Amino acid sequence: MQYISVVEYGPAWREKFERETGLFKNILKDELVAVHHIGSTAVPGLKAKPVIDIMPVVKDIARVDGFRAQFESAGYEYLGEFGIAGRRFLRKGGAHRTHNVHIFGVSSRFEIARHLAVRDYLRARPDEAAAYGELKARLALQFPEDIDGYCDGKDAFVKELEKKALAFVGFSSDSLDKRGI
Q1: Can you spell out the DSSP letters for the chain?
Q2: Percent of the chain scored above 90 by pLDDT?
Q3: CATH fold of 12-178, please?
């Protein structure tokens, strides 16, 4: 069972992201369009689980499967779509996870925009970031060995946060309703 730990923002998180960015550039080469640091570790000052979330964007998501062996040689567990169509999900660190990677093709515009919008919204709104960090810290104490309880406890907050973030970057409420958000 993995222990859930939410900690104060770590300045080294940016360096860890940069290191992995080099790895993705070396593996994906010309297929790679961009690499983004997403999730809570990408927001200075935000309390988070110390797991770096990375979002590479590629030209064609189907081609990524051809790089599976290289990712696995680099220490990643390759999990395919893992619940989100059009994504390739990788994780590193085993029981003491250090990285989550969400690879999307350029055609997954909404998924890319959604992740970047939440990150940018929290960076622009330190009060919201602080509230989110406090919620995560409380939930980690309440559910130290129950990832489902921890995630369920964040669910309503995260859905509302995502709505605000998407509106912040210009998605209309009509476009959000059509996507079930």
Answers
A1: -PPP--B---THHHHHHHHHHHHHHHHHGGGEEEEEEESGGGSTT--B-S-EEEEEEES-HHHHGGGHHHHHHTTEEE-TTTTSTTEEEEEESGGG--EEEEEEETT-HHHHHHHHHHHHHHHH-HHHHHHHHHHHHHHHHH-TT-HHHHHHHHHHHHHHHHHHHHHHTT--HHHHHHTT-
A2: 88
A3: Beta Polymerase; domain 2 (3.30.460)
